[in-house]
Amino acid sequence: MRILLLFCLVFASSFQYVPVNPCRLILEEMIVGIQNMNTYEFKVESKELVDGEYLRSVAEVKAQNVPFRIYMKIVTEEKGPEILYDEGKRDGDVLITPNGFPYFNLKLNPDGWIMRKDRHHNIKTAGFHYVAGMMEWSQRTAGKNYDRYFKYLGDTVYNGQDCHVLMIDVFDFRFVDYTVQKGERIDRIAERMFLNDYMIVDKNPDVDDFEDVREGQVIKLPSAYGRKIVMFIHKQQLIPYYQEIHDEKGVYESYSYEYIRKDAELTELDFSPDNPEYGF
Question: Does residue 13 belong to any structural domain of this protein?
């Protein structure tokens, strides 16, 4: 009897409760929710560090994930530009009406430096699906350091919305050497590793744009998307209403959402330059 009791105590002790990091549960729900979300509208204020200064922009956006298409109107100024991208149309180009000089519509390559020079992100990654993919990648690659990286900081009310506060603290963030392979360009390398392509150009003085690399060249890559990421995630919608990304020096970019409307009732006209409410 004594031996049986001892065995039961040892057996029970081997199954002690280990609390699950709440970040894992929240992010997994967020990822699934975003992956199942096809249409949405939002208004976002972005602040991005460019040449030592923060560039501020406010945009109203309509988006559909499959097929991917997006309409964006810059409302920082009274008559800002409008941008339309529809996957598979216009030879893959973005249609832009400046609503000012040069007073005619432009078609630009979304991957080109003209389109990206003062913008941290490609319009093809606008919205939330890229964020979901990046969080999925970050969790998968965190390994044994998950609980040291991912921290739940409680909750807050942001823009009138009840939100969870999460922080990804990459304490061992650093820049590492990478040898460019044949045919590679910066944005493709970043896409494969879920890194910030603009940051890579920014941190390599000898690189002027995404194509300014050659086979065998050694460049510096960040070891993660950012040194630190802070997210306010809506408790019901499970969508980030605020994202703040740091590099090794401080805040590198931030995105604040005034509203997000999931499953918006969007039609073909919402993604057409013939929409009478648009300026194309």
Answer: no
